[in-house]
Amino acid sequence: MTTGLSVVSATTLTPSDIEIATRAADHFTRLYYTTYDSDTRVVDLPQFYRPTSTLTWNGEPVTGVDGVKNLVENMPPTKHEMHSFDCHPIPGSQPPSLLVVVSGNVHPRVFSQSFMLLPDSTAPTTKPGEVAKYYIGADTLRFVG
């Protein structure tokens, strides 16, 4: 039988957890969009995903590393300008999964993108206070203007 205390401790995030998650999301978004806009994106961008990852790009679903690679191979060069992001740590694991919502411009369009970032169990173990390593479990991009 589970006590109320153990349920609360498994689902409660500390201010430190939230601060570390926000740093992880900031690091992730900067690296992701820099990679997306690079000349090597066809090779490098799929590394953010796993075979089970899903991406919905303006209503069109693709799955896995190969699906992402096929999608970006056919896109013209991009230049993303991120205006804001929000990070929502999802309690239940340590480090927590992250829901990251981004808004910005990719010339000349306005976009909104949501990521479900999952802790990367294959990455080296992080020390307390370090930013965890994540991969994209799910990704949805929509042009909104």
Describe this structure in words.
This protein has helices spanning 4-11, 15-36, 41-44, 64-73; strands at residues 49-57, 60-63, 80-90, 97-106, 109-119, 134-143. With 145 residues, it is α+β, with helices and mostly antiparallel strands. Residues 1-9 have low confidence and may be disordered. The longest helix has 22 residues, at 15-36. It has a single domain (13-143), classed as Nuclear Transport Factor 2, Chain: A. The N and C termini lie far apart (51 Å).
Low-confidence stretches: 1-9
Q: Treating each run of at least 4 consecutive H or I residues as one helix, how many helices?
A: 4
Q: Quick one: overall form?
A: globular
Total number of beta strands: 6
Indicate the CATH architecture. Roll
Approximately what portion of the residues adopt beta-strand conformation?
A: 35-45%
Strand order of the largest sheet: 2-1-6-5-4-3
Return the average pLDDT rounded to an integer: 88
Q: Sketch the topology as an H/E string, one letter per element.
A: HHHEEHEEEE
For the CA atoms, what is the radius of gyration? 16 Å
Q: What structural class results from the helix and strand content? A: alpha+beta
N/C terminus separation: 51 Å
The CATH class name reads Alpha Beta
| CATH fold group | Nuclear Transport Factor 2, Chain: A
Largest β-sheet summary: 6 strands, mixed
How many structural domains? 1
Write the layout of secondary structure elements.
Elements: H1 4-11, H2 15-36, H3 41-44, E1 49-57, E2 60-63, H4 64-73, E3 80-90, E4 97-106, E5 109-119, E6 134-143
Parallel strand pairs: 1-6
Antiparallel strand pairs: 1-2, 3-4, 4-5, 5-6
GO biological process, one term: mRNA transport
Subcellular location: Cytoplasm; Nucleus
Main location: cytoplasm
